[in-house]
Amino acid sequence: MAIKQRNKVNASFSMSSMTDIVFLLLIFFLVTSTLINPNALKLLLPKSTNQISSKQQVSVSIKHYQEENRFTYHINGQQQPVLYEQVENSLQVLLRNIEDPTFTILADQTVPIERVVQLMNIAKRNNYKVILGTSPE
């Protein structure tokens, strides 16, 4: 006497839960990638093939307005400019309790080297490390 099973094993696989996970990951990466861009200022950085991947702590941007021959300094990409005389104090406050204080200089292509060297002198006086920001070639 042959006994047959009434319940058949269903060998199909449901992909609906997998697509839910993929869409959640996609949304997560889209949201976090918009938070990565630290620069709020539009700068034309010089091009370089050497890129330093370092954990950026503080950035100082120098914007050059050629029509007026005017320079503005922005700390951490803020829209509100800071006077050059206040840059050193602001950096001291931001880098006070950091073990290896480093800041990045982001300067327009049209900024004279003298302005960049002034920021490097601030770093030397306070024993900070400096990274000169460039855009990839």
Q: Any overview of this molecule?
A:
This protein has 137 residues and is α/β, with parallel strands linked by helices. It has a domain of 90 residues: Nucleotidyltransferase, domain 5, CATH 3.30.420.270. 34% of the residues lie in helices and 20% in strands. It has three helices and six strands. A four-stranded mixed beta sheet has the order 3-2-4-5, covered by helices on one side. It has a two-stranded parallel ribbon with strand order 1-6. Helix 3 links the parallel strand 4 and strand 5. The longest helix has 21 residues. The mean pLDDT is 80.
**Based on the structure given, which CATH architecture of the domain at 47-136 is correct?**
2-Layer Sandwich
Strand percentage, roughly?
A: 15-25%
From the N-terminal CA to the C-terminal CA, the straight-line distance is 80 Å
Number of strands: 6
- Helix tally? 3
Characterize the biggest β-sheet: 4 strands, mixed
Strand order, main sheet: write it out: 3-2-4-5
Radius of gyration, taken over Cα atoms and rounded to an integer in Å? 26 Å
Task: Please render the helix and strand layout as text.
Blueprint: H1 16-36, E1 47-48, E2 58-65, E3 70-75, H2 84-94, E4 102-107, H3 113-126, E5 129-132, E6 135-136
Parallel strand pairs: 1-6, 2-4, 4-5
Antiparallel strand pairs: 2-3
Spell out the key features of this protein:
Nucleotidyltransferase, domain 5; two-stranded parallel sheet; alpha/beta; 3 helices; single chain; four-stranded mixed β-sheet; 137 residues; elongated
Short description:
The chain has 137 residues and is of the alpha/beta class. The chain has three helices and six strands. The chain has a domain of 90 residues: Nucleotidyltransferase, domain 5 (2-Layer Sandwich), CATH 3.30.420.270.
